[in-house]
């Protein structure tokens, strides 16, 4: 390979990019902030154009960097990718070796891209990518030398769309990984469930009596299990759903299995409404169906599946029904998104 | 496709130009190439790379020509893009040492934007900050999820926008005892549009 050939994609920044950058920067009150907004705008615009080349949909107007008030207060360079989340496009100046992350960009980004600027502002280079979930919480910096090639970003987009589009991969909970898809769909951060560990996890505590009751009935939750919670409104009734999962130890000649428990309670703590119905099915058949005909504080439903199984939960009450995103258990897939792992 | 684009960008013989609309045209060209590379047909009598460069350059030339035509709706004009309001353009360009007109260099950004200072909008932002602090009509305090009266738009905005450094939403969700996702969704769906609307009422107009 010719050593003079650059291995990095270059995006031209024409008049339109600079017109927007100038317009946004002119709204700022001091020179330092103006320069920040100018470069952030160019970085976001460059990635937006690159993704347009590849026919990947973006939405500038839904990005905080395109919101006049937010960009005036925050140091943001995010680009909204529908169905995926916010990609942070951070400018990298000629002598930079690290990308500084202001606190406002560290919470909800699906990933970070380094955008290399040089003295001439007619082109930028897209240096590489870092996944949000790989970044320790409260990280303040990314080393430029640790950015992954752009292919890992495109693989990650495919992975998010195809494998995880709207599915909850509960295997990620067991790794205590931040799971952007689950967060987007209203789930909390996963938490351990052993009696010692539950204190401090506000969302699990209300389920303690239910878990104790199940334990008395001989149903134990093993230590590696993780639970997660989501609020569901059905017929204007706020319910809390706790999902608990763990992998079952593989036995000889049987494939790896996983366990999923679902426990429902009223958010207010009272009795669940009678006639509330919970159905769990896989791709082919209904596995469980429960309808309340007595006053109950909790509704419990356990299922066990193989790795390829997918569980779909449907709740119904008074002719209203709601289907949740399928639960899957794919322990290998978190690494698949990034070829470098 | 990424690898292919990198290879194409490095092909010798690609048209380079200092034409004002070249960068814009090149951007459109890479988009077109990505979408249409599957229709490219090499000619048997010459090498693939020569035909490919000719194919790309052909499109690029036409895009430059299109963009250069004045008065076409949606196109950019040199005379529009330069702010001529009382500024001596020649002096300005000298000062900025731009690469091409309208494109500054990195070390010249501050001076470049100094000429464009939009004080009207800055005033609106100041008014909006005061508005958030005072909430004169009680609009912001009334905007909260049904069961969380303390989680109102004024409080969130003060914490995440006015406070320096801004509070994180995870910290705020702990402080308010509200689910992170409920808080974020309230911010995105209710607070942001309300603040936008307030900014417009206070006089914010984008160019």
Brief characterization of the structure:
The complex is a heterodimer of chains A (341) and B (207). Chain A has 341 residues and is α+β, with helices and mostly antiparallel strands.
Unreliable residue runs of chain A: 334-341
> Low-confidence spans of chain B: pLDDT under 50, at least 5 residues?
71-99
Counted by DSSP, the helix tally of chain B is 11
Radius of gyration of chain B: 26 Å
What is the rounded distance between the termini of chain A? 25 Å
Shape of chain A, please? elongated
Count of helix runs of chain A = 9
Portion in helices of chain B: 55-70%
The string of secondary-structure elements of chain B, in order, is HHHHHHHHHHH
Oligomer: heterodimer
Shape of chain B: elongated
Main structural class of chain A: alpha+beta
Q: What class do helices, strands and sheet pairing of chain B give? A: mainly alpha
Characterize the biggest β-sheet of chain B. none
Structural notes for this entry:
- The complex is a heterodimer of chains A (341) and B (207).
- Chain A is of the alpha+beta class and 341 residues long.
- Chain A has helices at 15-26, 31-53, 68-73, 150-163, 171-174, 180-184, 195-198, 208-216, 333-336; strands at residues 9-12, 78-81, 85-92, 98-100, 109-116, 123-131, 141-143, 168-169, 191-192, 226-234, 237-248, 257-266, 277-281, 286-291, 298-306, 310-317, 320-323, 327-328.
- Chain A contains nine helices and 18 strands.
- In chain A, strands 8, 13, 14, 16, 17 and 18 form a six-stranded mixed beta sheet that branches.
- In chain A, strand 13 (277-281) and strand 14 (286-291) form a beta hairpin.
- In chain A, helix 1 runs antiparallel to helix 2 (31-53).
- The two termini of chain A are 25 Å apart.
- Chain B has eleven helices and no strands.
- Chain B has helices spanning 2-9, 22-36, 48-68, 78-81, 89-96, 109-114, 119-134, 139-142, 153-162, 169-176, 180-201.
- With 207 residues, chain B is mainly α.
- The interface between A and B is large, with 65 and 65 residues.
